[in-house]
Amino acid sequence: MFKLESYITPILLSYVAKYVKNFRDEDAQVSLWEGEVTFQNLDLRLEVLEEELNLPVELVSGHIHELSILVPWTKLMSEPVKIVINTIEFVAKLPDSESKQRRASFQREQRRKSKRESVEQPDQTKSPGPASSSSVVNKIINNINLQCHNIILKYVEDDIVVSMNVQTLNFSSAGEDWKPTMVDIHPVSVVMRKLLQVSDLTICLDKRNTAGRIEVCQEPVLYRCTLECRVLRKYNANTVSTTSTTRIGVFTKSLDINVSSLQFPMVMRLVKMLLELKPAEFEDDPQNPEDQEAVAEGSESQQGTESAGRSVFWWAWSLLPSFDTEAPSSSCDTPTGHAFDLGVYAEELNFQLKNSEYFTDQSMGGIKRIRYTPILRISLGGLYYERTILKECDWANVKAGLSSMCMEPLGAYRSDDLVDRNLVNTQEFQQERSFIDKSLFDENYMFAERSWCSYNYADYVARNTDEYMLFRSPVLAFDVIEHRVPKPSSHPVAESQLRDLGVRIQYRLLSAGITFHFSQSFVQVKKNR
Length: 529
Fold this sequence. Notes:
Structural class: alpha+beta
Number of helices: 11
Strand content: 35-45%
Shape: globular
Low-confidence stretches: 123-131, 280-334, 493-498
Helix content: 10-25%
Largest sheet: 17 strands, mixed
Radius of gyration: 26 Å
Order of helices and strands: HHEHEEHHEEEEEEHHHEEEEEHHEEEH
């Protein structure tokens, strides 16, 4: 007789045991059968998290104060299983050579372990019980809801301390309208929508002294920001190794960034470090043929997922990819291969620069404090950054745009004249939501088979005309395309025999409606920088 509890319980507890040290799942089975189990003071397996997320940094410590699993046994087909985490803390740093070697060794050990398990238990991947029970279990697992409250991440680099706090994070499955709901997953034609909601994201940037202590805490660089991330995954189970589509979109309604003169040098150091940062890339051990065999066997089934997962951070840090030097085996006249699209959208971004200086407050017992004086505010509206890549087609493009911009002095530099007040301004854009056109956040655009993705230069230019680009972002529009050009031939030959002319990079920059004011305010700001 099929008992759902006997299948769901080990799967849920195995997830916890994978990421938590010294976990005894047999102690939690009875509590979970009753509908809820709670764990406290858990230490995380940092090497597993680094490997799973392919983090470009090294986790020094990770701790969960409380973790609960809630299973609605009587409503499993209509309500999701919930995993609730209360207060999770991380400390991270840049990886050194020793940590890179340790991480590479861990990766090789995981490959060997996976290879041994596949040999010893070849039928392990098959769900026990009848086919109907397998679909039920898959639906329950794919709809697990994760809720995190109070996420704390601290990053330390020399004298810089970056502290990030997230009040609430919610990860769930979503329907076609991108609302959290229970969804069914087709066993062959798979379309998955995942929704990640982040509330009250705050980032602080402070400087510590030679003793490693922060003398005075500065105002947050980013305060209580709300983000929404949508992930769309589409593939056919029979052809996932050759064709898949992954789209990731991040949207924020308002982003307020405040940087002081004391924080500005630290921000520039962090930006430079981020631009140079890449996920760790591990080479196969040439002396271990077992590893090579494991990689060869696993690459075909995981190519679609790994190609997207391993490159998320790399795409965030770099502008354009570098194609392989080898010529493609065939031209891409049909949209085959693994397509990946990453989009970041902000309805409004405000950047404020302030002068800051230390002073001793005698009224507070002579403690050291910071005095802030506002200097400049830059307000940007309707921003977007999109990156699309089809590796098999040797095609990649980046699009970015800006719909409005205003730069104005503050405080003593602010002019009383309304005409003279702004250093830079633009006309009000009429289509306030045009910058998210054809994105995952466009309510009027339904996902279709790769209609958002071009894989041919002529098709791309026809879809993305100058008029369309200025429609999305009337102030500033930019795109860059990297593609491989085949040599045309008057004689019919096989596609694989087409001669390759190499990679071509083409840029386009469009702008309209920007007004600069060189006034007395501009001279004052320039003199007092």
